[in-house]
Amino acid sequence: AAELDNYRKRTRRELEQARSQGVAELALPMIDVLDNLERALDAATPEEQSSSIVQGIEMVRSQFLDCLDSLDIRRLDPVGRPFDPHFHDALMEEVRDDLAAGTVIDELVRGYRIGDRLLRASQVRVSKTSAQAGPETDPETDQAPADSSSEPTSDDS
Q: pTM value?
C-alpha cells in the first residue's frame, strides 16, 4: 500500500513538472509577442493615445497578461531591489551615489517566472558608487589613462 501511494505521488509530481515545462515552452514565444505589443504602446505619441488602434493594442495586451496570470506566470519586479544574478542579467552599470551599490535602477527587458521557477531573467541596469567606478577613461581613446608605474620597460640593449 505504501509503495502504491509513493507511486501515485511520484506520478502526480512528474505530471505537474511535465505540464509546467510545456507551459513554459509555449509561453516564451508568447512573451516575445507581448514585448512587441508593449513596444508599440510605448511608441505611440500622446496624440495617438486616444486612437482606437492604440486602445485595441492595450486591450490585447491586457488579455495577454490575464492569460499569463491564469497560467501562474508572473512578471518580476526588480526595480529598487538588490541585484540577484539568479533572476537578473545586468546589461549596464550606472554611477549613482544616491543608491546602494548593486541596486536595480531600471528594467530594460521584463523578466517572468512560472510558479517559483524562472522563465526569463530581467535584463537590468544596476547602480554602482563612484568609488567602484575606478579610473575614468580618456574620451578620445576610450581607454584608461596610462600609469607610468605599470608601463613595461624594454631591455633590448
A: 0.70
